[in-house]
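Example 365, ligand magnesium ion.
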Amino acid sequence: MTRIVLLPGDGIGPEIVSATRRLLERLGEFEFSEHPVGGASIDAHGMALIDEVLDACRDADAVLLGAVGGPKWDTTDPSAPRPEQGLLGLRKGLGLYANLRPVRPSPALVNASPLRTERIEGTDLLVVRELTGGIYFGDSGRDGEKAHDTCEYSVAEVERIARVGFEAAERRASAGGQTPRVTSVDKANVLETSRLWRETVTRVAREYREVELDHMLVDNAAMQLVSHPAHFDVLLTENMFGDILSDESAMLTGSLGMLPSASLADSGPGLFEPVHGSAPDIAGQGIANPLATFLSAAMMLRHGLDRPDEASAIERAVDSALEGGLRTPDLASDGTTRPAAPGLPEQIEVGTDEMTEAVIEALAA
Ligand code: IPM
Ligand code: MG
């Protein structure tokens, strides 16, 4: 039996993870176990991730996480536990160095994008973010009036994430028939780690002759993402740049509430989670958008459990609920019920449960 560890976490995490569990239970037989992480674990155990939970994750076939964090645990005291340590500890502890964040606006949602339709149309990109190195994991500390965070990368760390990027580009190209392209993002005009990054990515690219590689400075990439998002295919970058650019890319789709992610190791279970955070302001109201977590479960089935047919079934069911006009409040941002596009029905604002039921129904159809 396939064993899935559920880590609901904080804020809207528990609502969207329990909705996703219902969806998965309709799809097949899974053995679930649930554990606290982040703020919930700080409340229960005084720290954001305990060894038992990390061990349970190691023993599982895949891990599905909601979100961590919230104002209750916000602190600038360097010695106090922080929810984010739970997530960072999982990534490090499971060796999840490759983070994949696909960005493809659902056709029914192009109007929800803050960009004009003609800009956003054709956007279909994948952010490949290095996840266990760089400034988030380097030495850091406080010394009186000073603080430091260190950014370090080794050639080996850059090589392995570069391969993930090139291979993802090849897979996407063979599915879609276009030339595979990788845009490697760095700050090589200032940072030494970026120069090592650029040099290494260029060298690894020689193993992937079919793939077109270009390099872009991160500030320019931030600009190009809003001016010409459709220009990107695979965007390969280091940890912090990937964190920032993936939120920016996610917003292109009209809602951060739509974007899934997969964090993968060379072996062992992957971790799958929505890109959005714990949204404490709407937690417990029954209005959280579960779709990014559904789509994360689809990534889990495809990348973590080798069940691609069920993955596609979830993706189609999500599209069909949206095409039917259903919108959680974050997606119904223009405040009208006008059809999202010609030929589509009027939009109906719904909560988490109704959206979940609609997707489950579409699965069966
Ligand atoms: C993300 C989040 C995390 C990160 C935080 C919660 C530590 O923003 O997954 O992008 O920065 O990696
Ligand atoms: Mg982030």
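Summary: The chain has twelve helices and 14 strands.
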